[in-house]
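Q: Could you fold this chain for me?
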Amino acid sequence: MEALLASDAFRDIAHTATVARGRVWEVLASLVEEKSVDLIVVGTHGRRGLKKLVLGSTAEQVFRLARCPVLTVGPRTTNADMAQASVAPVLFATDFSFGSRHALPYALSLARANHSRLILLHAVAPIMRFVTAAVDTEPVNMEITAELTAEALASARQQMSQLISAEMKQESEPEVIVECGTPAETILRIAASKQAGLIVMGAHRASLHLVASHVPWATASAVVCEAPCPVLTVRS
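A: Sure. Below is the predicted structure, expressed as structure tokens.
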């Protein structure tokens, strides 16, 4: 910690340092409460699949349980210079949930403060997942028909238009993207193609610590692990 604080990164920045013993989230939660923290910044190893199921993810535990926004920097983040230049666009990914709507003001504020273009994105999943009543059967995946897909896309575009306020249009009308595809894959692809400097999205709260750190298939988890830029998650 002493070596870290002696680096040039902390020059002219007021700071304090804490080294504590204990489980990461328990120590961090206490510190957040004590210091009235407004933002947590954390790195992640980007564990996926079986490795994550066994070892868990501290970063996901943090952004699923923290009351304040969490900025996560994953191992695939490659655009640090672009983010510092304050010109890369801010990508706001929404599923229209309460948590997602709660994250929108942060995306707007950060885009405004950095004079960045704002991109709004929603992905319509091409497959619906049904859980049968029988206990011993697996969930069934069913592809959505072309007609249902068209209806879902039209509905999503209408919901997107409702998110865009008159104030947003007056400043700089955001780019709106509505596509059919797996949410995580679509978010990552658009972030890469648009060279986003930041992804902002909502994160569903976990009810159990173990669940928060051992669910490898959630959208936010996949995006944080694979994103080419930092990801700001705001819990519902």
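A (continued): DSSP finds eleven helices and nine strands in the chain.
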